[in-house]
Protein backbone atom coordinates (compact mmCIF):
# COMPACT_ATOMS: atom_id res chain seq x y z
CA UNK A 1 0.00 0.00 0.00
CA UNK A 2 1.17 3.53 -0.68
CA UNK A 3 0.43 6.91 0.74
CA UNK A 4 0.50 10.27 -0.97
CA UNK A 5 2.12 13.62 -0.29
CA UNK A 6 0.64 16.74 -1.82
CA UNK A 7 2.10 20.20 -2.08
CA UNK A 8 -0.07 23.29 -1.82
CA UNK A 9 -0.61 25.60 -4.77
CA UNK A 10 0.13 29.20 -3.86
CA UNK A 11 -1.37 31.92 -6.00
CA UNK A 12 0.05 35.36 -5.53
CA UNK A 13 -1.55 38.35 -7.25
CA UNK A 14 0.28 41.65 -7.19
CA UNK A 15 -1.14 45.13 -7.77
CA UNK A 16 0.51 45.24 -11.18
CA UNK A 17 -1.82 42.54 -12.41
CA UNK A 18 0.88 39.77 -12.72
CA UNK A 19 -0.35 36.38 -11.54
CA UNK A 20 2.04 33.54 -10.69
CA UNK A 21 0.95 29.91 -10.77
CA UNK A 22 2.61 27.02 -8.92
CA UNK A 23 2.23 23.48 -10.18
CA UNK A 24 0.59 20.99 -7.84
CA UNK A 25 2.43 17.63 -7.83
CA UNK A 26 1.33 14.35 -6.35
CA UNK A 27 3.98 11.70 -5.61
CA UNK A 28 3.22 8.14 -4.54
CA UNK A 29 5.46 6.82 -1.80
CA UNK A 30 5.32 3.72 0.43
CA UNK A 31 2.79 3.94 3.23
CA UNK A 32 5.50 3.71 5.88
CA UNK A 33 7.24 6.75 4.40
CA UNK A 34 4.01 8.75 4.31
CA UNK A 35 3.26 7.89 7.94
CA UNK A 36 6.80 8.75 9.03
CA UNK A 37 6.37 12.25 7.61
CA UNK A 38 3.44 12.77 10.00
CA UNK A 39 5.45 11.98 13.12
CA UNK A 40 5.58 14.64 15.80
CA UNK A 41 8.86 16.53 15.73
CA UNK A 42 11.04 17.01 18.80
CA UNK A 43 13.95 19.09 20.02
CA UNK A 44 14.51 22.46 18.37
CA UNK A 45 11.87 21.57 15.75
CA UNK A 46 9.16 20.60 18.27
CA UNK A 47 6.88 23.50 17.31
CA UNK A 48 7.07 22.98 13.56
CA UNK A 49 4.26 21.30 11.57
CA UNK A 50 4.74 17.84 10.01
CA UNK A 51 6.66 17.64 6.77
CA UNK A 52 10.01 18.83 5.49
CA UNK A 53 11.19 22.28 6.48
CA UNK A 54 13.70 23.55 3.86
CA UNK A 55 15.31 25.72 6.53
CA UNK A 56 16.46 22.73 8.57
CA UNK A 57 16.25 19.77 6.16
CA UNK A 58 17.80 18.99 2.83
CA UNK A 59 16.65 16.32 0.39
CA UNK A 60 19.56 14.64 -1.36
CA UNK A 61 19.72 12.95 -4.72
CA UNK A 62 18.78 9.27 -4.84
CA UNK A 63 21.70 6.86 -4.62
CA UNK A 64 21.49 3.59 -6.57
CA UNK A 65 23.44 0.56 -5.35
CA UNK A 66 25.19 -1.54 -8.00
CA UNK A 67 26.43 -4.97 -6.90
CA UNK A 68 29.50 -6.37 -8.63
CA UNK A 69 29.28 -9.95 -9.87
CA UNK A 70 31.98 -12.58 -9.49
CA UNK A 71 32.76 -12.28 -13.20
CA UNK A 72 33.35 -8.54 -12.87
CA UNK A 73 35.65 -9.11 -9.90
CA UNK A 74 37.66 -11.67 -11.89
CA UNK A 75 37.97 -9.27 -14.81
CA UNK A 76 39.12 -6.48 -12.49
CA UNK A 77 41.69 -8.85 -10.94
CA UNK A 78 43.03 -9.77 -14.38
CA UNK A 79 43.21 -6.10 -15.36
CA UNK A 80 45.14 -5.29 -12.17
CA UNK A 81 47.57 -8.13 -12.87
CA UNK A 82 48.08 -6.94 -16.46
CA UNK A 83 48.67 -3.40 -15.19
CA UNK A 84 51.29 -4.66 -12.71
CA UNK A 85 53.07 -6.55 -15.48
CA UNK A 86 53.06 -3.43 -17.68
CA UNK A 87 54.52 -1.29 -14.88
CA UNK A 88 57.18 -3.92 -14.21
CA UNK A 89 58.23 -3.96 -17.88
CA UNK A 90 58.37 -0.17 -18.08
CA UNK A 91 60.40 0.12 -14.86
CA UNK A 92 63.31 -1.79 -16.40
CA UNK A 93 63.59 -4.23 -13.50
CA UNK A 94 63.05 -7.26 -15.73
CA UNK A 95 60.26 -9.76 -16.17
CA UNK A 96 58.73 -11.93 -13.47
CA UNK A 97 60.26 -15.42 -13.48
CA UNK A 98 58.44 -18.45 -12.07
CA UNK A 99 60.41 -20.40 -9.45
CA UNK A 100 59.01 -23.72 -10.73
CA UNK A 101 59.17 -23.68 -14.55
CA UNK A 102 61.18 -20.44 -15.04
CA UNK A 103 58.37 -19.03 -17.19
CA UNK A 104 57.38 -15.33 -17.45
CA UNK A 105 54.56 -15.47 -14.88
CA UNK A 106 54.00 -15.48 -11.11
CA UNK A 107 54.78 -18.71 -9.29
CA UNK A 108 51.24 -19.03 -7.86
CA UNK A 109 49.87 -18.91 -11.43
CA UNK A 110 52.19 -21.64 -12.76
CA UNK A 111 50.24 -24.38 -14.59
CA UNK A 112 52.81 -26.96 -13.39
CA UNK A 113 52.67 -26.14 -9.66
CA UNK A 114 50.75 -29.38 -8.90
CA UNK A 115 53.45 -31.53 -10.55
CA UNK A 116 56.84 -29.83 -10.59
CA UNK A 117 56.02 -27.77 -7.51
CA UNK A 118 55.88 -30.82 -5.23
CA UNK A 119 59.27 -32.05 -6.43
CA UNK A 120 60.71 -28.56 -5.88
CA UNK A 121 59.41 -28.46 -2.31
CA UNK A 122 60.97 -31.87 -1.62
CA UNK A 123 64.35 -30.70 -2.95
CA UNK A 124 64.20 -27.56 -0.81
CA UNK A 125 63.27 -29.62 2.25
CA UNK A 126 66.21 -31.95 1.70
CA UNK A 127 68.54 -28.99 1.14
CA UNK A 128 67.38 -27.39 4.40
CA UNK A 129 67.91 -30.56 6.41
CA UNK A 130 70.32 -29.88 9.26
CA UNK A 131 73.42 -32.06 9.04
CA UNK A 132 74.67 -33.63 12.28
CA UNK A 133 77.57 -31.74 13.83
CA UNK A 134 81.07 -33.15 13.38
CA UNK A 135 82.70 -34.64 16.43
CA UNK A 136 85.51 -32.79 18.05
CA UNK A 137 88.97 -34.32 17.99
CA UNK A 138 89.61 -36.67 20.89
CA UNK A 139 85.98 -37.68 21.47
CA UNK A 140 84.96 -41.33 21.55
CA UNK A 141 83.74 -42.80 18.24
CA UNK A 142 82.05 -46.23 18.21
CA UNK A 143 83.95 -48.85 16.20
CA UNK A 144 80.98 -49.37 13.91
CA UNK A 145 81.27 -45.88 12.46
CA UNK A 146 85.02 -45.32 12.59
CA UNK A 147 86.66 -44.48 9.31
CA UNK A 148 88.06 -47.60 7.69
CA UNK A 149 86.15 -49.93 10.03
CA UNK A 150 83.32 -52.08 8.66
CA UNK A 151 79.81 -51.03 9.65
CA UNK A 152 77.66 -53.25 11.79
CA UNK A 153 75.53 -55.95 10.20
CA UNK A 154 72.27 -53.98 10.42
CA UNK A 155 73.66 -50.91 8.67
CA UNK A 156 75.49 -52.96 6.01
CA UNK A 157 72.38 -55.03 5.31
CA UNK A 158 70.22 -51.90 5.00
CA UNK A 159 72.62 -50.32 2.49
CA UNK A 160 72.86 -53.49 0.43
CA UNK A 161 69.09 -53.99 0.23
CA UNK A 162 67.63 -52.73 -3.08
CA UNK A 163 65.80 -49.57 -2.07
CA UNK A 164 64.19 -47.08 -4.43
CA UNK A 165 62.99 -43.59 -3.70
CA UNK A 166 59.67 -42.34 -5.10
CA UNK A 167 58.78 -38.64 -4.99
CA UNK A 168 56.03 -36.32 -6.22
CA UNK A 169 53.36 -38.19 -4.25
CA UNK A 170 50.02 -36.62 -3.40
CA UNK A 171 49.29 -35.52 0.18
CA UNK A 172 46.53 -38.11 0.60
CA UNK A 173 48.83 -41.04 -0.34
CA UNK A 174 48.97 -43.79 2.30
CA UNK A 175 51.26 -46.76 2.91
CA UNK A 176 48.51 -49.10 1.70
CA UNK A 177 48.43 -47.21 -1.62
CA UNK A 178 52.18 -47.70 -1.99
CA UNK A 179 51.84 -51.37 -1.07
CA UNK A 180 49.26 -51.89 -3.82
CA UNK A 181 51.38 -49.97 -6.32
CA UNK A 182 54.80 -51.58 -5.75
CA UNK A 183 53.95 -55.09 -4.54
CA UNK A 184 53.12 -56.51 -8.04
CA UNK A 185 56.83 -56.23 -9.01
CA UNK A 186 58.04 -58.47 -6.19
CA UNK A 187 58.09 -59.04 -2.43
CA UNK A 188 58.49 -55.79 -0.49
CA UNK A 189 60.34 -55.93 2.81
CA UNK A 190 59.84 -52.34 3.97
CA UNK A 191 57.90 -49.17 3.05
CA UNK A 192 58.71 -45.81 4.61
CA UNK A 193 56.35 -42.90 3.82
CA UNK A 194 57.57 -39.51 5.05
CA UNK A 195 54.81 -37.69 6.94
CA UNK A 196 54.48 -34.41 8.76
CA UNK A 197 54.76 -34.93 12.53
CA UNK A 198 51.97 -32.49 13.38
CA UNK A 199 49.37 -33.11 10.63
CA UNK A 200 50.24 -36.66 9.55
CA UNK A 201 50.01 -35.60 5.88
CA UNK A 202 52.42 -37.10 3.38
CA UNK A 203 55.45 -34.97 2.56
CA UNK A 204 55.46 -36.25 -1.03
CA UNK A 205 58.21 -38.89 -1.00
CA UNK A 206 58.74 -42.45 0.24
CA UNK A 207 61.30 -45.29 0.26
CA UNK A 208 60.47 -48.80 -0.97
CA UNK A 209 62.81 -51.70 -0.09
CA UNK A 210 62.54 -54.96 -2.06
CA UNK A 211 63.93 -58.36 -1.18
CA UNK A 212 65.43 -58.78 -4.66
CA UNK A 213 67.23 -56.23 -6.75
CA UNK A 214 65.62 -57.32 -10.02
CA UNK A 215 62.19 -56.54 -8.53
CA UNK A 216 63.32 -53.06 -7.56
CA UNK A 217 64.89 -52.54 -10.99
CA UNK A 218 61.65 -53.53 -12.71
CA UNK A 219 59.59 -51.23 -10.49
CA UNK A 220 61.95 -48.32 -11.18
CA UNK A 221 61.85 -48.78 -14.96
CA UNK A 222 58.07 -49.18 -14.99
CA UNK A 223 56.92 -46.50 -12.55
CA UNK A 224 59.42 -43.74 -13.34
CA UNK A 225 57.41 -40.87 -14.87
CA UNK A 226 54.26 -42.94 -14.32
CA UNK A 227 51.02 -40.95 -13.99
CA UNK A 228 49.59 -41.70 -10.54
CA UNK A 229 46.42 -39.76 -9.87
CA UNK A 230 47.00 -36.20 -11.07
CA UNK A 231 50.78 -36.27 -10.56
CA UNK A 232 53.79 -37.77 -12.37
CA UNK A 233 55.93 -40.04 -10.16
CA UNK A 234 59.71 -39.65 -9.97
CA UNK A 235 61.44 -42.96 -9.11
CA UNK A 236 65.19 -43.40 -8.57
CA UNK A 237 67.66 -45.52 -6.62
CA UNK A 238 67.97 -44.44 -3.01
CA UNK A 239 71.38 -43.16 -1.96
CA UNK A 240 73.22 -45.29 0.60
CA UNK A 241 73.15 -44.00 4.16
CA UNK A 242 76.07 -41.81 5.06
CA UNK A 243 76.69 -40.66 1.50
Order of strands in the sheet with most strands: 6-7-5-10
Computed over alpha carbons, the radius of gyration is 40 Å
| Portion in beta strands | 15-25%
Distance between the termini: 87 Å
Please tally the β strands and state the result: 10
Structural class: alpha+beta
The mean pLDDT is 76
Largest sheet: 4 strands, antiparallel
Helix count from the secondary structure assignment: 6
Query: pLDDT below 50 for ≥5 consecutive residues: which ranges?
Result: none
Give the helix level as a range of percent: 25-40%
- Anisotropy-based shape: elongated
Order of helices and strands: EEEEHHHHEHEEHEEE
Give an account of the 3D structure.
The protein is α+β, with helices and mostly antiparallel strands and 243 residues long. The chain is built from six helices and ten strands, in the order ββββααααβαββαβββ. Strands 6-7-5-10 form a four-stranded antiparallel beta sheet. A two-stranded antiparallel sheet has the order 1-4. Strand 6 and strand 7 form a beta hairpin. It starts with a strand and ends in a 6-residue tail after the last strand. The relative contact order is 0.08.
Amino acid sequence: STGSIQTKAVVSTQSTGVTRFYKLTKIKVPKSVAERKKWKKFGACAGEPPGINPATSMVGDPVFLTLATKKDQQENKEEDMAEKMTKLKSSGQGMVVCRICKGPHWTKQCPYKDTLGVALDVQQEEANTVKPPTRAQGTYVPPSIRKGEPADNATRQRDENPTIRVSNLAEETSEKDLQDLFKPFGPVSRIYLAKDKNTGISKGFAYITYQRRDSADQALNTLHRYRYGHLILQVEWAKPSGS
